[in-house]
Write a structure and sequence with these properties.
By secondary structure, the protein is mainly α. Helix content is 55%, strand content 0%.
């Protein structure tokens, strides 16, 4: 995977909001009787999050989704508490993330919060969004 990953330029990879490694599913999980969340329930949650975004950006001419937020909108809609700010500061420093990654993390955090029906971005939303940056070039060096 590392050889393939090295073929993708850092600036191109930086423009991808979510990087997810998907390991093979184990047999015990495939053979499990445990019921997964139904697609209809997931769809409802996604539709509710999209509705929140539509309301949030109703007066905006620049965009209708979290992914399209401007820098000014980021400052308004992606406020972090002090603990979350410190976590993001550490992630930016330790993982050597770019300014573009910073914006992407905030936008994804806002979306995760919307999916969780949370008016504020909580530290767990931010942590999940940071986790989605695992393929950034500096992590593979």
């Amino acid at each position: 995977m590392e050889n393939y990953r090295n073929r993708i330029s850092g600036p191109l990879l930086d423009r991808i909001d979510i990087h997810v490694e998907t390991p093979a599913v184990e047999f015990k999980d495939l053979n499990s009787d445990e019921r997964a969340e139904p697609s209809a329930a997931i769809r409802e949650r996604v539709m509710a999050a999209r509705e929140k975004q539509a309301e949030r950006f109703a007066s905006s001419r620049k965009g209708r989704t979290n992914a399209e937020m401007s820098n000014a909108q980021l400052k308004t809609h992606c406020r972090l508490d002090p603990a979350s700010q410190e976590m993001l500061r550490l992630a930016m420093s330790e993982l050597q993330l770019s300014a573009r990654a910073y914006d992407r993390i905030l936008k994804v955090s806002r979306t995760i919060a919307d999916l969780a029906d949370s008016p504020a971005i909580r530290i767990e939303h931010l942590a999940e969004a940071i986790q989605y940056r695992t393929l950034d070039r500096n992590l593979w060096r």
